[in-house]
Every structure is written in C-alpha cells, then in structure tokens.
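Example record

The entry below shows one chain as it appears in the dataset: sequence first, then structure tokens.
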Amino acid sequence: MRAQFVLSEISVGLRRNLTMTFAVIVSVALSLALFGGSLLMSDQVNQMKGYWYDKINVSIFLCNKSNAQNDPNCAKGAVTEDQKKTILADLDKMPVVQKVTYESQDEAYKHYKTQFGDSPLASTITPDLMQESYRIKLKNPEQYKVIASAFNGRDGVQSVQDQKGILDNLFGLLNGMNWAARAVMALMLVVALMLIVNTVRVSAFSRRRETGIMRLVGASGFYIQAPFIMEAAVAGLIGGTVACGFLVLARYFIIDHGLALSQKLNLINFIGWDAVLTKLPLILATSLLMPALAAFFALRKYLKV
C-alpha cells in the first residue's frame, strides 16, 4: 500500500509540474551528454597519442649544396661521407635509439612527388635540392632532447626535427576543446541542479496541505520526502537515458555511418564501441543520484519534516 501511494504521488507530481519536469529532463540530458562526450574525447585523444607517438620519428636533416650557401648551420659546406658515417655510428651507440633509417636525396624527392605532386612548386623541385636525412625511431618518444642536444650544431647537420612537436600542437588543441566542453557541461549541470531545486520547491509548496496532514498523523520524514526525491530521480533518469541515446547515435552516425569518419580518415584510430558502452552506466548512475541528492538537500530547507 505504501509503495503504491509513493508511486501515485510521483505520477501526480510529474504531471502537475510537467513544464518544469521537461526542463529538468532536457538540461540533465544535455549536461550528461556533454559529460559523456568529454570522457570519450579524452579517451580518443589518449588513444591517438598512443597510436601516433608509437609511429613518430626524429629526423636529422643533413646539409646539401643548396642550403650550404644560405643556411648558417651549413656554413662549412655540404655533409661529407665521413660525417655521415660518424653520425650513423654515434646513433647506433645511443641506447635511446631503436632503429635508424637513411633517406637519400632521390628517395626524399620521390616522397615529395608522391605527397605534393599536384603543387605548382613541384615542377621546380629537383633531387639535388632535397636533403638527405636519418629517420630515427626512439624507444621512448619523450627522449627527443637527447638526440637534439647530441646532433644540433654538428658539422653536416642542418637541423634536428621532432614530429612529436607537431602532434603536441594538435593534441593541445583537442584538449582545449575538451576542456571547453567540460566548462559548458559544468554550466549545464548548475542549470540542471537549479531547475531540480525549483521543481522540488514548487512541488512541495503545491502539496503543503497533504504533507501537513501526513505530519499530523505521524508519517516519518523519509516517507514524506520519498515522493519528491523519487520524482527528481525519475526525471533525471529519463534525462540520463536520453543522454546515453545521444552518445550512441553520435558514435553511430559520426564515426560508423552518416559522416563515416572511420572510412574517410583512415589515419585516425577511432575509439570503439566498448569505450562508449563503458560510459553509459556511469551516466545513468549520475543521472539518478544527482537529482535525488539535490532534491534531498532542497527538501531539508523547504520542507520542514
């Protein structure tokens, strides 16, 4: 009988404050969708880091006849065979180096034509303008400075470049976008909490006569509060379910179908369905507990029991 009474009160409360209940559902859904999206964005960035950092190289570009004339790092002329042998021998001795690959001018020219063959400048580039280089695979990409400090300024070396720096700029941008999404999420959560508190206040005020009678007949505080708390929890759970639907649809239409980024951007290792599905229980639990706790503390102030 008591359970039936509580359920009937929940139904009455949700219908009586239908507009505010709808606002709570929408705000909870949007805030938790952003929350889940920010978690998935973090997973995506970490997965991309693990994928790309394992593939990046440090490149030692050697001086040629062209840059020997206008580059201060190559003031002593183009790299000699002895200098190349010395650089290679020193690289082989370094414990941080996993693998060294030599790229000749002809090979560099072929790679350039493959990547930028459609460029207007491609017809003006000849193999002798390209630079020889050593492509170095490190055991730990974070140890780039060891290579840079050892070879920057050495005779025959024009520059030492780390691809990690380029990726760091990309990941920095993605992390910035992720923090912006979290800031919007936090704002939406505050809005949702305020709506929940106001909904509980309105509901408690509209039923003050019933709660007064219940107090007179000796009903416990929890028994009086339960319908209000469960109203907020039900509305929040509906919003959480909608948020889960948003995330599933976003993963389906953006990555797998619709935009189909997984097919168009083959160079990006996208997160799988397991990453999405593991976030859904957290979102549902948050959508249930957050409104219930907000209602509980609001009732302590606005419903004297």
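Notes for this example: Residues 37 and 247 are 7 Å apart (CA to CA). The first helix runs from residue 2 to 16.
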